[in-house]
Amino acid sequence: MALSGLDIYKLLPGGQKPPHPKANCKECGFPTCLAFAMKLAAKQAELAACKYVSDEAKAKLSAAAAPPIRLITLSADGRKIEVGNETVLFRHEKTFFHPAAIMVRVPDTLSAAEIAKLAKAAADYKVDYVGMALQLDGLAVEAASGDANQFAEAVAAVRGACAMPLVLVTEDPGLMAAGLVKTAGVTPLLCAATAANWEAMAKLAKEAKAPLAVRADSIAGLAELTEKLVAAGVEDLVLDPAVRSFSGSLQTVTQLRRLALKKNYRPVGYPLITFPYLGISDPALEELLAGQQVAKYAGFVVLSKFDPAMIYPLLVLRANLFTDPQKPIQVEPGVYPINRPTADAPVMVTTNFSITYFAVANEVESSGLPGWLLVADAEGMSVLTAWAAGKFDAEKIAKTVKNTGIAEKVSHRKVVIPGHVAVLMGELEEELPGWQIKVGPREAVDLPRYLKTAW
Ligand code: SF4
């Protein structure tokens, strides 16, 4: 049962009678104990921030202070992934903390050489997206053969080829035990416990100190299983809602997330795992369903195969969803030389919002024309937004020109400003005496033509 802000306040130093000497001391970062209590109730603060809570109160508060979605960690040879700990339904309410782990299925029916090749390709896959390195998170080894030795050998082949976190997929406790033998150095996710096998799976999970996924096709079924497993001593759980259709999956995962966050219903307060290929033969539909599940609300998404054409869009979607909306993606302000510029190459100014920077830099780079890109610190905003917010004005641009030392790198005194801020031209001429201010195009895509014709 969730505690209200006032219930919590009564257990904090300020709510006691007589009040604790440290009441309202602000050391938690909030102005009063009541303000802190309200944040705790909203899951936007950690109880550990107050050092003056009694042990007795701590015990009572633990349920209210615990994250509504349990944090689950998988690891392999020091590389780890964490999912869970989410506190909001929608990213704009605060942020999402742990990106959905995107993993690739490895059926044990492949040969050892094929498995090693697949595992290595998945582990080595890395793409650069606006300065971020995007990559896969792990592999889901599936006991598709039904043979214990074959499953164990498949796990061994994956381990021999890479150090990625693993999910072991089988409902057969005998096969799971065989696979676990080959997981030294790994904390895998065991998938899955069902109504038929949960006691044996619980035993394996406890022995391996590994999290356990729970599979059922209804919310009631999932909750019943997690309650039994918690009572049996397995607390690190993941839910596999075995509802595979587009609408069924969306409806079920949304209800699960709402129950966990809004009703604080502990039996479903765990991350989710999904298998978007189950029941689907068209890879395009698999990708669409995976995209839906990355957005809502999977913690682990297992894809049917390693296919960069499918993986790249999902990684980009995930990067955009799991970026903190209050912290724009930024690049370092400064001078960026493109295509080995010489002293007569053009100087162009833009802002340090990553997408703006990469749009401009990519256009200049792919044109083959050399240039100096001056990136102003506009607090990670795009050109127009920064201009409207007063973060990209004549003074800021002039400061960037002066502080970056570009004058020593070029033999001319011309600087191109984005067409969207042409209005700054006059003011900038006053700020930068001796410099000629040129107004470039509004869109980055028009820069190559501008550089060829107007520079
Ligand atoms: S740290 Fe915060 S909650 Fe704790 S006593 Fe001080 S003001 Fe109150």
> What Rg, in angstroms, do the CA atoms define?
27 Å
CATH topology of the largest domain: TIM Barrel
Bound molecules: iron/sulfur cluster
Count of domains: 3
Strand content: 15-25%
Number of strands: 18
Shape: flat
CATH superfamily membership of the largest domain, which one? Dihydropteroate synthase-like
| Helix-residue proportion | 25-40%
Summing up helix and strand content along with how strands pair, one would put the structural category as alpha/beta
Write up what this structure looks like:
- 39% of the residues lie in helices and 18% in strands.
- The protein is of the alpha/beta class and 455 residues long.
- The protein has three domains: 5-65, 3-methyladenine DNA Glycosylase II, Chain A, domain 3 (Orthogonal Bundle); 72-321, TIM Barrel (Alpha-Beta Barrel), CATH 3.20.20.20; 334-453, Rossmann fold.
- The protein has an eight-stranded parallel sheet with strand order 11-10-9-7-6-3-13-12. A three-stranded antiparallel sheet has the order 2-1-8, with no helix packed on it. The chain has a three-stranded mixed sheet with strand order 14-16-15, sandwiched between helices.
- Helix 14 packs across helix 16 (425-431).
- It starts with a helix and ends with a helix.
- The relative contact order is 0.08.
- It binds iron/sulfur cluster.
- Iron/sulfur cluster binds at residues 12-14, 22-28, 30, 33, 36, 50, 52.
